[in-house]
Amino acid sequence: MRRPTPALDEAVSIVVCHMRDAATASLECPTNRDLAARLQTSSTYVVRVIQTAEAAGLITVERGNRQRVVRAPDGSWRTAGEINNKHWRNRTEADRLAPKPPRRKRKRDTTAPAPRGRDGQAGAAALARAQQAQAHVVRASVPAPVLKASSAGTDLMADKRGCRWPMWGFGQRATHVYCGGARESVCGPYCAAHAVKARRLISGVSDVA
To answer: What domains lie within the chain, and their CATH numbers?
Structure first.
């Protein structure tokens, strides 16, 4: 059966004695997990106990990123170990202004084979979609070819049918039968003969056969 968590004052005395015993044996300061096992409590409560002991002036703590060194305020004992990389709580202004070593960038391994199984299939499908999207972007960025118009006019827009002169008379029902002869020009609607008649109608001369 787990015994109840000791009171804060009792826990402070136990932790300080445990640290003093480690210093006497020339050992490093116990970790929060070791102290939590000693007190049969959580590591969070151990942090609170150490902060309380430090605030009461019972110990002096020098923290690092992965370890700490605890000493008595009068210097009578000290746990083993050296702090090479100080914790941000113990850094001074000189430590903050000191040049930092350059960080090494991890190189991405592009030669590694794709994983197999469901993850590999999902990765292959994602890669195929990315390649397809990239190819679509490349195709969209290529300008469409520009068609050059011929000297006779716009051949693509010109009507390919023959002369469009109606072959039914005025006042008659439309039969939609047209001349169909060769046009005078690519852009013109009538053949040479009917083009003359059209111009005469426009000018007001009534000469329609």
So the answer is: 8-91 (1.10.10.10), 157-209 (no CATH)
